[in-house]
Amino acid sequence: MEFFDLGNIHFILAFFISIANAALLCLIAGKFLQILQLSGYKIKGYNVWLKDTKARYISRIAMLAFLSLACVLVTNALFDVYHRDSIYSYLGLIFYVYFSIVFIINMVNAPQKTPLAQTRRMARLISCLFILCMGITFVLIWVCTEWLYFIKFGIIVLTPLLLPVLVPLAHFIMAPLENLIRHSYIVRAKKKLAKRSDLIKIGITGSYGKTSVKHILFDMLSEKYNVCMSPHSFNTPMGLTKVVLRYLKPENEILIAEMGARQVGDIAYLCNIIKPQHAIITGIGSQHLETFGSKENIKKTKNELILSLPENGIAVFNEQNEGAKQLFDECSLKNKYLAGFGDNSCVKASEINITSSGMSFILNYNGRSKKCNCDLIGMHNLENILLSSALALKLGVSLDAISRAISELQPVAHRLEIIRNHNITVIDDAFNSSVEGSAAAVNVLTNFKDAVKICITPGIVEMGEEEFKVNENFGAQLGEVCDYVIVVNKVNQEALKKGLENTKIIKENIITVDTLKLAKEKLSELISPEKNYVVLFENDLPDNYT
Question: Is the N or the C terminus of the chain less surrounded, counting Cβ atoms within 10 Å?
Answer without folding.
Answer: N
